[in-house]
Amino acid sequence: MKNHYASLILSLALTLVSCNSDDNSPTSDICDFLGIVSNSQFNNTNTDNYVIQSVDLQGDCLQIEIASGGCDGDSWKVRLIGAANVDDSLPPMRSIILRLDNQELCEAFITKTYSFELTPFRDSGDSILLRLEGWEDPILYSF
After folding, report:
1. Tens of pLDDT along 46-57?
2. Prediction pTM value
3. CB 125, CB 82: distance < 8 Å
4. Please, which residues have CB within 8 angstroms of residue 19's CB and are 6 or more apart in sequence?
5. At CB < 8 A and 24+ separation, what contacts does 119-124 make?
């Protein structure tokens, strides 16, 4: 009986230790990453190392195709960051920015598509305009 309780406690401890509230994992299996709201990260993000090729909204996921220099893009790290403040308009508007960490030194021009769960960008009401830095048109996100 002691072994059973020890196994149960060990399993619970491992489960708690393996959880990380700071990860960038989406709450659904549809999107690659979870968008985050952070003024400090938003204000400290550089956008001159990529070009947005296309944007496609699919439910709660925003697919963004980007192009940048690199070897193969396998080491790229991306985040979609929203400003904490929301413009008081109808519908409300939030600025968002894509952050690309690219340490690849090759000169190939790589194109990759990433999807981001938008639920952290919701505000009161049933829709919000998202103004993506580097993309001309605002994106109407209805929820």
Report:
1. 999 999 999 999
2. 0.80
3. no
4. none
5. 119/27, 119/34, 119/35, 119/60, 119/143, 120/34, 120/35, 120/36, 120/37, 120/82, 121/35, 121/37, 121/82, 121/94, 121/96, 123/86, 123/92, 123/94, 124/92
